[in-house]
Amino acid sequence: MLSSHYSCQRGKEFFSQGEWEKVVICYSKAINLNPQQVEFYVQKAEAFLQLCDFQSAVLNLRKAYSLSSAKEEYVERMAFIIYLQGQCLFDQEVYWDALESFTRASELQPDNSLYRRRSIACLAALNRYHDCFRLVNEELDQDSKNPDLYILRAKLHEHFCRATLCYQDVQEAIALEPRHEEAQILMQRLLKRAQQAKNQAMNKALKGNLKDALLKITFAIENSPFDAGYFIFRGTLHRRVKDFNSAIDDYLKATELCEEEGAVAMEAQRQLLLTYNDFAVHCYTQGFFEEAVLLLNKALKGEKNEKGLYVNRGDCLFRLGELTFALADYQQALELSPMDFSLRRRVGMLLDELGLQEHKKYQRAVYCFSGAIESNPRLPHYYLHRAKSRLFLQDEMSAKEDVIIALLLDPENDAVLPVMTSLFPGQPIQDIISSKIAEVAKTILERKLQACPYSNSRAKLKWYGEASGHRSAKVVLKI
């Protein structure tokens, strides 16, 4: 026992002097004399550690562990020494052996995140990125507030060309540590890459290469997935290639990303409405009228002062046979643009159709035909239809005025003759045209034409009998 004590004392002296080989010799002698003394193994292990003989250090600590009741202390020390061994191997680029050391250290101390992360570094150095990615995810499950882990995973996403996920992880890291240098550098790289792709997309779009332009702007969005302007641009490209569903998705995403009252939000909303309209027109041309109406309903929720939307929906409703609703849309459009001749023409056409459908409801039919005439007083068949309805109402005088106006507007109209025969039996056309009722009819027509807001010409009409090539004035209408 005295000899072991002496060897221990000598070992301590050499320890303080940094004579590590002599320390090992002294404690080896002490262990031979007293193999149950835990301290001897511990000190010998420390000496081996200083000599970078990691395996011998671990062996001595393992012996101390087996003899001592304070086992946790020695487990921690063994794990640390194995970690140091792994770090030395890593610095020497012996990655497989380093990975084995870090793995052993982690097994001894599973809660030590440093050891696990060094394993991740080894896997990355060995190009085992999938295993690396799995371990990083496990680390983040346990420590979701560590910006370094997010950056590590972001780099892995970048390696796998998953730019959007890379961006999201960088964003998480910056949220946790706004001045994180590596995160800022990676973010700038992503944004620069996105801007370059956007510029390339614009150049290709200008050259008409829309397919490649879409690929480029999609790449830009992957690298900067929260830039509303990129989604608006891609939506425009989708619209140009008639991929309306994708365009709508992009515009909706853009509106989510920007401030409600900002200029970008207004542009996104405007483009969305245009896309609804374009999609509706496309559906209309394909015969999908109900789908077109639904799309225009969405557009009108966002924009109630665009006449074109009402006109297009009215056209669809007309094709679906919903004449009353179609008329309401045309009239709404006309309120927004009272001088639009095409709108008045549509209203007139629709009112005429409604009048024809009013079976045996002659008063209602007259009302519809009168509305058609007010909208477009130049079409003779509106007057002719009203004349027939007025006959059923026994309003013969008004019916005569209408049929004369129809004849004045279109002397070659064969449909006028049967009605004229009914109203003016046995009378020559020239006598009818020269009658007082014809003068009244001419005055009524001239007033309507002069009051017509879309008429650009006030030239006097060439009445029946004044134009060359007309029917003979001597024709007599027969019953």
Automatic annotation (TrEMBL):
TPR repeats lie at residues 4-37, 79-112, 307-340. InterPro entries: TPR-like_helical_dom_sf, TPR_rpt. The keyword Transcription does not apply. SMART domains: TPR. Pfam families: TPR_1 (PF00515), TPR_11 (PF13414). Keywords: Coiled coil, TPR repeat. Residues 180-207 form a coiled coil. PANTHER family: TETRATRICOPEPTIDE REPEAT PROTEIN 16 (PTHR45153). This is Tetratricopeptide repeat domain 16. The lineage of its organism: Eukaryota, Metazoa, Chordata, Craniata, Vertebrata.
